[in-house]
Amino acid sequence: MKQHISKRLLIGGNWKMNGTREASTLMLNDLVTAFEPLTESVDAAVFVPFPYLQHCGNLIRGSGLLLGAQQVSAEANGAFTGQVSAEMLLDMGVKILIIGHSECRQLLAESDELIGEKVAISVSTGLSVMLCVGETWQERQAGHAEAVCRRQISAALKGIHLDHMGAIQIAYEPIWAIGTGRSATPQDASISHASLRKDIEELYDPALAAATRILYGGSVNPANATSLFAQPEIQGALVGGASLKAADFASILRSASQATSSRPN
101, 110, 135, 193: which is the annotated catalytic residue? Predict the structure, then answer.
């Protein structure tokens, strides 16, 4: 099956709750310039905080960079103070959303079922989704990593029709590697990705499993990006801290571009 896996990588930059209007302007001006020669070989998105979506969307318009948001409501509209709907985000020019990030699962107590509802309303609205799954260190040590990810992905994709699966990419983010400086080895990450692909195959079919892009997230930086992307099962990265500096993020994008060109068709 590996020879059928899409070779084009996707790199997402998750800014989380960081940045200012001025900082985002400086960062994106540099990033747009750095990304220009890479547009034919790699896809990239920036997931910015809600207050800066319109501003950042204007800055990257026409560059090939995708505008991403970090959250969405499971509701279409109504009396839900503080929440933002998929339709609103689409109206603002957002193309892709992060759903199921471990920080939302843990800090906001988002359940597997709620995450599934958010995925469903997002893809039905016309947005792409970056679905995050991953285990804690304790779960990994207990040998439950695959079962945890299988549970998360099964709940998130429950009821998602095959026709909408093209809008979904999976980000494997082991919780123990997020913001800790400790990354899974490329080999460990590749094994987890292959397991996730098998889960998708069982939920749908081999062709869909091969077509679904699976990314790695967890302390990705310029120093480890090349070794991660050398693994054919790893089809990109969801980058945290390193995405806040244009030079670091551009370096990761270049590594992804080089990996794309070196992979067999």
Answer: 101
